Structures are given as structure tokens and as C-alpha cells.
Amino acid sequence: MKKEYTLKGLDCANCAAKIETAVKRLEGVADASVTLMTATLKVEFTDEHADMLQRIRETAERLEPGIVVTEKEKRHSTGGGHGHDHDHDHDHDGNGITALIIGAAIFVAGMVLQYAFRINSYVLLAVFVTGYIILGGEIVLKAFKNILRGQIFDENFLMTIATIGAFLIGDAAEAVGVMLFFQIGEYVQGLAVRRSKESITDLMDIRPDFANVRRNGDVIKVSPETVLSGDIIVVKPGEKIPLDGIVVEGEAMLDTKALTGESVPRKAKVSDEVLSGCINQNGVLTIQVTKTFGQSTVARIIDLVENASSNKAPTENFMTTFSRYYTPVVVALAALIAVIPPLFFYGAWGDWVHRGLIFLVISCPCALVVSIPLGFFGGIGGASKRGVLVKGSNYLEVLGNLEIVVFDKTGTLTKGVFKVTKLLPADGFTGQQLLELAANAEAFSNHPIGLSITKEYGKQIDKKRLTDYNEISGHGIRVCMDERVILAGNHRLMNSNGISFEESAEIGTKVYVAVDNVYAGCVVISDEIKEDSRAAIAALKSRGIRKTIMLTGDDPQIAEAISKELALDEVYGGLLPEGKVEKVEMLESRKQGKGKLAFVGDGINDAPVLARADVGIAMGGLGSDAAIEAADVVLMTDEPSKLADAIDIARFTKRIVWQNIVFALGIKGIFLLLGAAGVAGMWEAVFADVGVTLLAVLNATRVIRRK
User: Fold this and answer.
1) Close Cβ partners of 301 (under 8 Å, ≥ 6 residues apart)
2) 706: left (phi over 0), alpha (psi -120 to 50) or beta
3) C-alpha distance across the termini of the chain, in Å
4) Dihedral sign of CA atoms 293, 294, 299, 301 in order
5) Strands 476-481, 466-472: parallel, antiparallel or unpaired by DSSP?
6) Of 107, 265, 86, 90, which Cα lies nearest the Cα of 176?
């Protein structure tokens, strides 16, 4: 069983990690994951306790006082917790910035009194202590509370020890200055995190506020959640389409940018399917709802983006673990620096204690624990702006390491818009008889091949005459019509029923038809390659993808012809769903080093292989619900070239994340050595902590701002 909770007031990666770790240790909890950007806690239970909410609240309050835990409402919105920056207790109504200004003014006044007026040392100390209490009182108090709770090694502890130590060795000005710049850095850092969250919130602001429903002859405004499938809604110019449906009246241009990333409006007319989240630019549309709000496109997109950060990349998990052990180690090293040299070698105690304090200030791991998840979240947000939904930063990392891309054919590389091109009746049957038998067999099918046959037939089919309909996966259809048994499908269906027939050599999808075990003929159907497919394959190869491969259940001859036209590296035709899984498993064994394999598909029979690949990618425009559920990445248009965009974003995100890791660890490593050697002072330590963190956070926001 799974539940979600909202953590109001959470804006800190470090405290998010602490809460996640603590909740995982609670009895009855199998797993837990905290998503910083949406302030959400997901918990999977092995054994649910009635008091679980209270236990989670107590855990959060113990670790981070002020965070309010509530069970998440079953609604689809993009709002996360606001008003909680990295020091956890700043109020963003002005109190935090006011304290900073007052503290800064007292610090400046103290510096002027110290160097310009040479004021009495006790008065000067009183001035600095006053400034310190205003700037760092909450941090010191929190550090002591955390020590009592067993939560010792965090940034509050590091800053408290470093600054109190500075007072003890007579560097009151440094103590206040370090706390001032630490607070400024924390405030700006929290501001950067909140703005990043807001940019995603703005991006995903596609949730409709209302729906105009036609009931009893009147049009009334209601909540989208109350509208049922089959209801008729009216969408006026400038309004968002609140639910998925079919246009039954009217014509309009739709802005689909929020869903697909495409800036060119799309025309919607009678009988067209329209998706929730699109904006009606002109005209009035009357729409019959096909999905309730919870199942609608807009709800699913919001849910995907909100929950994407709960699936964390290996790099994120490694850095979380790293920072957990890193802080105690550097505290121990700082203690050794302060004690060992004056005790056993040379130098004054004050000098080495000062070096140890500097070492502590430099060591704070904020740059890593904030900027890395922020970078991945920015990548997920940047991808969604381009019509690519990534369900987790772990999948974003996989996209950046792709070397083999495997495609389905129908609806992925081809349009999936089929047309009957030839009728090849057997002896004793006419073309019209063959078409009639095939159309009746396909009467209940929603597959593009079946729809093309019924469309070609063009007559009303009396479905009351049809009984015992059975769709046989990977083979075809069996149905009874007026007590006659009709079979329509591929060569495997004919062979499995012992029907004597001759396989057609025609290029195209072939539907063989038999009635009462007598072969009636073959219907040949053709599909067109998407205009975008050639560009997609070329783009992937230009990005270093080693192998592009197509798997299809279609005729091997057709598969081979399409493969040559698209310049694919390999093709496998005539595959059942389990055959596709077997081929993917075989291709997995060909991967080199850290290379990954992606499968791109759109049909319901692609769900098993989508789940089997390192990353499953579903075509969301025409893709089935099952495929989108099983996939890790969803392309919101039917353009396979979007995959190249996704790879670009993933690789850019990876570069930013590793830049931050190398930059933060490199600079800190250099300054730690300089601090231990007595070369770097407290002001350099502030830069190595706060400055590096700010630069890393600003670098991470490049992913979100990337055009």
C-alpha cells in the first residue's frame, strides 16, 4: 500500500534527505521518498499502522521543526510547499530579510568602532554579540536541539562550532561576519530553489479551473472532477479544454504548447479527438467527454511531472550517501587539526584551533545536496517544456547514456494510418465478398488495420449477427456470423487452424480471411512512413547512437523495405509480443560498458517490452494508455525526433550535474588544504562554503532556463 503526504515548509535538500532516511526506518515502512520540488513524501507500507500519520509528523518535527505534514489530497495540482528556505525557519514575509539587514548594520557598525574609533573591547564585544544573536541565534538554538535529538552533523552544527570557537579565540568580528555571510548565502540559495520550483509550477499550470457542462438544456460551470464520461461540455475562446473528448460541434485552433512543446496551433473539427490542457484560441467547441478528469491527459501529465523526482538518479543517491558520511569525517579531521599539531609537534593552540574552525566552515556540503537534485529537476522541467515527459531523474540519466535504440513500427516510425490497397480473393469468392467477411471480423476492433478494412467496406455492419468474438494476440480474430466461423489475421492464424492457403508476395500488411475453415482470400493494407522518421534516425546517429533497430509483428518483407528506406541498422519482423521481449533481451547482451538500451513504441502489445528495456519510451499522442503506463518517458507528440531532443536535454543535465560535483569538491578540497595549512582565513572559508554553493545553484538553474 502506498500513500502520499505533503510537507508544507520544505525547501531544503539536506532536510529532505534526513526526513526520507528517518521515515524509511519507521516500523511498517517498506520504502519512502521525499521530492523536494513538490514537497511530497511518498511512503510504501509493509504493514499500515493507524497512527502512521502521527508518527511521520513526529519524525518530521523532530528533525525539522516547523514542517507541517498532511496526507495529500487526491487532487491534481502542481503546487508544492512554499515559504521554507534552506535554514528552514526564515519567514518570507519580510522578517528574514529584516533580521539580515539589522544584523548586517550591527556588524558594519562593530567594524567601524573596532578600526576607526578603537572603542573599549567590552563594548565592542557587546556589539558583536548582539549582532551574532540576531543573525545566528536560531541556528545555534537549532544546533543544540538537534544534538539532543541525536542529529549532530549538519550545517547548523558546523556553523555553531566554527563561530563560537571564533569568539573563544578572540575573533568576534570573524564570528559575526561568517554568520552574516552564511545567512545571506542561505537566503539567496533558498530564493533560487523557490524560483526554480515556481518555474516548474508555471510550466505545469495547465490544470483547468472549471468545465462548462450542458445539462438539462443549460450550460453550467462546474469543477472538472465532477464531469462524467459521456457528458457534453462547451469550451469558449480563450478557455482551457478541461477534459479529453471528441468534438461533436464547432471548429477552432488549439494552442497545444503546454502539452507538446509545439508552438504552431492545431486545428480541431467535428470528430477530432482533443486533449485536456489545450487552449481554445478561437471558435466555440462542443465536446463529448471520453475520460474523467483523473484519467485525462492533463491530470496524467501533472502527476508525472510532480512525481518525477521521487525516482532518483544513481548520481543523486550516491551524493546523498556521500554527504551523510562526509560531514562526520571532516568534523573529525577538523578536531585532529586543532589538537594534534600543538600537542605533539609545534605551534600555538589558538592558531591550530583557528585552522580547525576554518576547516569546519569550508566543509559544509550544501553545494552538493542542493545543486544536484535541482539540476536533475531542471532537466525534467526542461524536457516537459519540449513535450517530453520523463518519469524520474534515474531515467533522465539513462537517456544520457543511450547506445542502442529499438523502435516498434506501426504508429511509431509509420503513421499507423492504413489503407486497403488490394483485394486478392480465392477461387469461389469475389472481392466484395472477401471485403465483407473481413469487415465483419474486424467490426469490434480498434486497431488501425481493422479500422481501415471497415472504412473500405463503407457499409453499416449489423453487430447483432456477430457472436463469440475472440481477439487472439499475435494471430488475429475469430468471430461467428450467422453460425459461420470467420477467421481474419496473419499466416500464423491460418496455420494454427489447419487452413490451406498460399502466402501472398505482395508488399504490405496482409490479412488472410477464411470462413468455415475455407480460405476466402487476402486483404493487402499499406501504411505510410512518418515524415519525421527519417530525420529522427539521422539525428540519433549524429548523436552517437551506435545501433538503431526495428522490431515489428508485421510481415518481414514490409519490415525490411521500411528498414532500408530509413537506413536502420537492423530489423526483425513477424514477432509476437513475447518475441519482442526476447529480441530486446538479446540486444541487451550487446551493450558496451555503461551503454543503455531504449525501446520506443505506442501500442498495447508494446507494454511488456517497454517495461523490459533500460528505458521505455511511449509515443503519447496516439499511444495506448497501457503503453504510457509501462513507459518511463512519454513523447507527447507522434514525432520520434523528440527522442533526440530528450537525449540532448539529458546530456546537458548530466554535464551540469558533474560540473557542480567537480567544481564543489575541487574548490572545497583546495580550500580545505589551504585552511589546514593556515593560508586560507575565515573569509576565504565563507567563499568556499557559501560562494561555491551559490555558484553551483546558479549553474544548476541553467538547465531550467535552457532554450
Assistant:
1) 204, 206, 259, 277, 384, 389, 636
2) beta
3) 40
4) negative
5) antiparallel
6) 107
Nearest to 82 by CA among 99, 70, 95, 67: 67
Question: How open is the CA angle 110-114-117, to the nearest 5 degrees?
Answer: 110
Please classify residue 244 by burial: count the beta carbons closer than 10 Å to its beta carbon, then call 0-12 exposed, 13-18 middle and 19+ buried. Answer: buried
Q: What is the pLDDT of residue 428?
A: 92
Q: pLDDT tens digits for 124-183? A: 889 999 999 998 888 888 888 777 766 666 677 777 877 887 787 777 887 888 788 778
Name the 3-class secondary structure at 678: coil
Task: Clarify whether 272 is annotated catalytic.
Answer: no
The gap from C-alpha 282 to its chain's centroid, in whole angstroms, comes to 32
Distance CA 214, CA 567 (A): 52
Distance of CA 662 to the CA centre of its chain: 25
Please write the tens of the pLDDT for every residue from 35-47: 766 678 888 888 7
Residue 580 CB coordination number (10 Å): 24
Contacts of 134 (CB under 8 A, 6+ apart): 99, 102, 103, 106
**pTM of the entire predicted model:** 0.65
How large a percentage of the chain has pLDDT more than 90? 25
Distance CA 347, CA 367 (A): 33
Residues 479-535: tens digit of each pLDDT? 999 889 999 999 999 999 999 998 887 877 889 999 999 999 999 988 888 888 999
Distance CA 692, CA 340 (A): 29
Nearest Cα residue to 294 out of 388, 200, 223, 380? 223
Instruction: Decide: helix, strand or coil at residue 267.
Output: strand
Q: Which 3 state secondary structure label does DSSP give 279?
A: strand
Collapsed DSSP state (helix, strand, coil) of residue 252: strand
Q: Which of 87, 171, 244, 408 is catalytic?
A: 408
Question: Which residue intervals of 424-463 are DSSP H helices?
Answer: 431-441, 448-457
Question: 383: closest CA among 186, 640, 649, 14?
Answer: 649
Planar angle of CA 252, 254, 257, nearest 5 degrees: 175
Helix, strand, coil percent content, the chain, rounded in steps of 5: 50, 20, 30
Give the 3-state secondary structure of residue 617: strand
Rg of the chain, C-alpha, whole Å: 32
Per-residue buried b or exposed e for 342-357, using 16+ beta carbons within 10 Å of the residue's own CB:
eeeeeeeeeebbbbbb
Contact 243, 296 (CB under 8 A): yes
Q: Classify strands 570-572 and 633-635 as parallel, antiparallel or unpaired.
A: unpaired
